[in-house]
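Hi R.,

As promised on Friday, here is the backbone we talked about, encoded as structure tokens. Could you run it through your design pipeline when you get a chance and send me back a sequence?
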């Protein structure tokens, strides 16, 4: 980590993290992820497991409230451990639509239980529901190309911002091709529509990448993060190796 930058922006948050309690692609539980992130030096994390439209392990045949209870276990395990060790743990989730994915922030378990219509909601309806709750919708890795993504689809009318830097692209860019171009396209897309940008690791195990968003101050809640992003609060982004300003320009 760049010490000079971290002196100015000492509060680092992982905004894109999965747990094995809910995400089929994850290999570590919420409590393990919390300990690893604390040891790395994160101030806090957002648990963003895959929902019913993504790579989840939760049985879709469950009644809605039971489904939500199961889905939130990874977050709850992480939160319990975070409270014990001094790591802030916030709730979120990654909503999937045939490979196109969105990160949702500023909502919680009670809100999900109160909205069973989420399960059948379109991209537009999902956005509206999250907004009614004062939440934030960020398009996750919008230009990623992988076998599980049939095609790149953009929804500029139905997002608040863009995950401009996804650390997984930088970790695996040497596997077959250079994947860092996905982020270059995401940054250009954000500039075109004047969207605020975030960064996250898209991490699935305790071998951390170190990506995320760093602020000058400590966040107080998930809703505080929503306000900080929408209000274009001063922050820096990182893929764990390179640091960027909030416009996506390399600074260190």
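Update: got your reply. Pasting your designed sequence below so it's all in one thread:
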């Amino acid at each position: 980590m760049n010490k000079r930058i971290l002196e100015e922006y000492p509060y680092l948050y992982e905004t894109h993290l999965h747990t094995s309690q809910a995400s089929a692609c994850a290999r570590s539980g919420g409590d393990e992820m919390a300990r690893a992130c604390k040891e790395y030096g994160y101030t806090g994390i957002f648990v963003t497991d895959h929902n019913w439209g993504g790579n989840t392990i939760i049985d879709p045949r469950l009644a809605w409230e039971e489904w939500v209870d199961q889905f939130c276990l990874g977050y709850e395990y992480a939160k319990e451990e975070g409270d014990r060790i001094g790591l802030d743990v916030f709730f979120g989730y990654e909503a999937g639509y045939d490979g196109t994915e969105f990160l949702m922030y500023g909502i919680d378990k009670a809100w999900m239980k109160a909205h069973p219509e989420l399960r059948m909601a379109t991209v537009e309806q999902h956005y509206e529901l999250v907004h009614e709750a004062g939440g934030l919708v960020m398009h996750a890795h919008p230009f990623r190309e992988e076998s599980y993504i049939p095609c790149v689809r953009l929804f500029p009318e139905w997002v608040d911002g863009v995950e401009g830097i996804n650390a997984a692209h930088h970790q695996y860019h040497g596997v077959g091709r250079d994947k860092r171009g996905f982020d270059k396209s995401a940054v250009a897309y954000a500039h075109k529509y004047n969207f605020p940008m975030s960064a996250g690791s898209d991490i699935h195990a305790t071998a951390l990448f170190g990506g995320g968003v760093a602020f000058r101050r400590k966040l107080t809640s998930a809703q505080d993060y929503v306000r900080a992003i929408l209000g274009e609060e001063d922050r820096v982004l990182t893929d764990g190796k390179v640091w960027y300003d909030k416009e996506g320009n390399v600074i260190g």
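One thing I noticed while checking it: The first helix runs from residue 3 to 8.

Thanks again,
M.
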